[in-house]
Amino acid sequence: MRYVLAVILALIGFISFLGFAKAFEIASLEQLQPISRPLGVVWLAAAVLFALAAVTLVMRARWWWAPAAIGLVCSTVVIPAAWDDAKFGLIANAIVLVPVVVSALAAAPWSFQAHYERDARDLLQSSASDTSIVTEDDLAHLPEQVRRYLRFAGVVGKPRVADYRILFDGALRSGPDKPFMTGPIEQTSFAAPPARLFLAHMAMFGVPAEAYHRYVGPSATFNVKIASVASVVNESGPELTRAETVTLLNDMVLLAPATLIDADIEWEELDPHTVRATWSNAGNTVSADLSFDESGALTDFVSADRARSADLKGMGATELDPGSRTGSTNRLLWSTPVSGWKEFNGRKLPTGTAVWRLPKGDFVYGRFEVKRIEYNIAAARV
Questions:
Q1: 57, 52, 53, 50: which is closest to 14 by C-alpha?
Q2: What residues does CATH 2.50.20.10 cover in the chain?
Q3: Which residues of the chain, if any, have pLDDT below 70?
C-alpha cells in the first residue's frame, strides 16, 4: 500500500511539473492551455513537494505527509486556472488527501506516537548508567548453557546494556484464520528499573492502525487505535501485567542477553541443552524454559505464564486442555522459536516468530525481523 501511494504521489508530481514546463516553455506541450509564469512556479512547487513526499514515504519517514499536504494546497490553488486540462487532478488530490490526513493525525500530540516518544524521553532520563565491559568473570554465576549462549551472542567484551531502542519489520494477526498485518515496529526498553514501550504501526482493511504496549512501573497497558482516532482495544489489569512480565523476560533473553548477568533470575538446569529461568518484577513471578543447540545458540523460549485472555475458547482452548500449568482458560504455552541470526555491531540478534501452542495446533501470530538496534542510549547522550 505504501508503494502504491508513493507511485500516485510521484505521478501527480510529474503532471504538476508539466504545468511548470508549459509556463516556462521548457516543452511545447501544445495540447495544454497557456499558463502564466507565476502559476508555473506554483506548479513547480507542487511537483517538488509531491516528489519529496513520495521519496520520504518509501523511506518510511513519519513526516512524509507534511510535504504532501503543502503540495495538495499548491495543486488545488492552481487547478482552477487550468480547469479544462487539470480538473481531474482534484480526483487524484482527493485520493491522496485521506492518507495525508490519517498520517497527520498519527503525528498529533494525542497520538500513540507522541505518547511513545514522551514516555521514552522520560524514562531515558532515569535509565541505569552501568555500561561497563562484560568479562568472562561476570558470567561465572550463570549455568553453563547460559554462559555459552552469551558468548555466542557476542556479549563478552561488549558493554552491559542499560537501555536499548530497536526497529523491527513486523507482521501480526489476531487469529489463525486472519491475514497478517505488516508494518514497522518501534520498541524502547530499559533494564533497571525494567520497562518496555512497544509501538506497532500496522493496517486493518487498508486503514492504518497503531498498537501500543506500555509496561512502566507496576502495571502494563495495551491499546489499539484505528486511524489514530477510534479506540478498539483498551486493556489493563493483573493478567495483562503478568503477560507483559513474560514479554520483558523474553526481550532480555533474545534482544539484550547482557541484561541476564545482573538480573535477579533463578536458574534451574533441566538437561544439557535446557534451563528454566524464573524472574520476578512488579509483584509477578514468571518462568520460561530456554533451549539451546550445540553451538550455544538459543533455539526456543517457552512459557506457560503469558495470558491470552481474549477468544481462546473459539480457538479450541478449555480448562481441561493440557499445556497449561494452571489449567486456566487463559493460560497456554507461548513460545518464540528462533529461525535465524543477524549480527549488529558484533552482537547477534534473532529472527523469529511468536507462537501460541493451542490444542488445535500452533498459532503463529507474530513475525519479527530486527532492522536496527541501538544500545545504551542514555549513556551515549551523557
A1: 50
A2: 112-381
A3: 1, 204-206, 307-331, 381-382
- Predicted confidence (pLDDT) per residue in 129-173, tens digit: 778 999 999 999 999 999 999 999 999 999 999 999 999 999 998
DSSP-assigned letter for residue 272 = T
C-alpha cell at 138: 561476570
Residue with cell 512459557: 303
Backbone angles phi, psi at 116, to 5 degrees: -60, -45
- Measure Cα distances from 14 to 34, 51, 192 in Å: 18, 8, 52
One-letter amino acid of 315? M
For the entire predicted model, the pTM comes to 0.81
Choices 2.50.20.10, 3.20.20.300, 3.40.50.720, 3.30.460.10: CATH for 112-381: 2.50.20.10
Per-residue burial over 114-132, b if 16 or more Cβ lie within 10 Å, else e, is ebbeebbeebbeebbeebe
Task: Say how far apart CA 23 and CA 108 lie, in whole Å.
Answer: 38
pLDDT, residue 326, reads: 39
Per-residue pLDDT tens over the stretch 263-286: 899 999 999 999 999 999 989 999
Q: Which residues, at least 6 apart from 263, have a Cβ–Cβ distance to it below 8 Å?
A: 191, 252, 279
Q: Which residues contact 195 (CB under 8 A, 6 or more apart)?
A: 123, 189, 215, 216, 217
